[in-house]
Amino acid sequence: MKLLAGNPGWTVKADVIVIGSGVAGLTTALNLRSSNLSVLLVTKARIDEGSTKWAQGGIAAALGPGDTPEAHKKDTLIAGAGLCDAQAVDVLVTEGPEAVRKLIARGAVFDKSDTGEIALTREGGHLRNRILHAGGDATGAEVSRALLAAVHDDDGIEVIENALAIDVLMSDAGRVCGVTLHVIGAGSRDGVGRALARAVVIATGGLGQVYAQTTNPSVSTGDGVALALRAGAEIADVEFIQFHPTVLWRDDSLSGQQPLISEAVRGEGAQLVNDKGVRFMVGKHPQGDLAPRDIVAIEIFKQMKESNSPHVWLDTTMIKDFPERFPTIFASCIENGIDPRKQMIPVSPASHYSSGGVKVDLTGRTSIPGLYACGETACTGAHGANRLASNSLLEGLVFGTRISADIAANIVDASEPSKRSTKDFLLSPAIKMTLQLAMSQGAGVMRSEESLRETLATLEQLSAHTSTEPCIEAWEVSNLYLLATAIVRAALERHESRGSHWRSDFPVSSNDWVKRIVQKYDQDGNWSSKLEEVKL
């Protein structure tokens, strides 16, 4: 199965294609160059417009006095609600400190304490201060800056901006050997072309735009996961969509990317209160306002439902140096008429992060030879049912390094794309808002058999709105449709509440569901799923 697109009008070649310019893609590309492999780095917008630069909180790593990878692992497993792959977590927390040191060696500058040491803070789910941050609340921007500077200095990395990866190219032997791209630009690479390589790494970030309101940028339409699905790759854990509990509420009619209020603000003392001024997280979890994100999000949802209000409040008035500590958040609040030094901030949950994605092993290999996935696009199993705060940037650093090492050690000779024809499809861009609203209403923070079946029925109706006019908007909405269907199917199958998956009709976790739902989509457009035991 592939997207309807024009015939490729140009060809480019490299040893490895890396799709995505966030922390995962950039780390992979730079490490591949250490093995003297040529890299084609493809990015959907400008190279600095991925999700990484929006990360406010920071990077979690056991670097502080008395902290250990084992303590970091314990917190990660607790947040993952029994569904983490223990081996993947071991890799993440033990290789994480060195990955961060390497990032610092590449030029990333993190905030320092008064003594000159790297300042470490705490976020939800962490029992120790182990979060590195930069510019207060601009960590992602600094990580992106440092990695991009290294990429720009390397002549062995060719960058194609404003390019959407449409589908993978397969050899007759069933190995991925490139991708088709659509480039918006002038010259020989305007329009559809093909990029050939000996290996392809998908690092396209998240799929937050599946929902009406999200913290993700507009480019986060899950293109990489959808691309892998159409190629026949397995995906896993996609029902576990993390809703960030504290997103600046402005108006329910506003869709798309919304301003994030990092939980690092709560780490500095901010408190969640309801319309009556009551601190509703007290007694709900031992860590109170700093409980794991799924716990906080569901409690906010309950408060909103009880009071029939579109938001709760975050009281930040006790943080004396708010503009200096959180300059980005302060600017967003002021822009929306709120002074967090004097007023409480209205907040509500919005889609933030997909703990699932393309199923990979500990070296980032997917179920298709030659195809790798990294970062939010991938499902390593390290996040389980709910990602621990600030483990996402760390995952990109650690597994980007592992992928590049595996490719360098096992890269094969280039092969030619198969000439066999494949079924194609394309949906109309007009269905986008209906799809997003259906997902937010029926497959959001709280789900049920009834709400999910209604959402699935809506999606099936939308599938009839096909298009014969290939364009970026049509390709994106076709990807969103595929991902929305996968999310709803998995959420229907999982008869329990666990991590960031909450079912009102199955409100507790069940030992029968310490399993991973793995899905596939075949060349005829049929879905299948299987259950796999979690490696505890």
TrEMBL record:
Q: Where is the Fumarate reductase/succinate dehydrogenase flavoprotein-like C-terminal domain?
A: 434-534
* Record bears the keyword Ribonucleoprotein: no
Q: Which Pfam families match?
A: FAD_binding_2, Succ_DH_flav_C
InterPro entries cross-referenced by the UniProt entry: FAD-dep_OxRdtase_2_FAD-bd (IPR003953), FAD/NAD-bd_sf (IPR036188), Fum_R/Succ_DH_flav-like_C_sf (IPR037099), Fum_Rdtase/Succ_DH_flav-like_C (IPR015939), NadB (IPR005288), Succ_DH/fumarate_Rdtase_cat_sf (IPR027477)
Domain FAD-dependent oxidoreductase 2 FAD-binding, by residue range, is 15-393
GO molecular-function terms, A-Z: L-aspartate oxidase activity
The biological pathway it contributes to is:
Cofactor biosynthesis; NAD(+) biosynthesis; iminoaspartate from L-aspartate (oxidase route): step 1/1
Q: What class of enzyme is it?
A: oxidoreductase
Cofactor(s) recorded for this entry are: FAD
Q: Please provide the record's keywords in A-Z order.
A: FAD, Flavoprotein, Oxidoreductase, Pyridine nucleotide biosynthesis
E.C. no: 1.4.3.16
Give GO BP annotations, semicolon-separated.
'de novo' NAD+ biosynthetic process from L-aspartate
- Report the family membership: Belongs to the FAD-dependent oxidoreductase 2 family. NadB subfamily.
Protein name, entry field = L-aspartate oxidase
Q: Which organism is it from?
A: freshwater metagenome
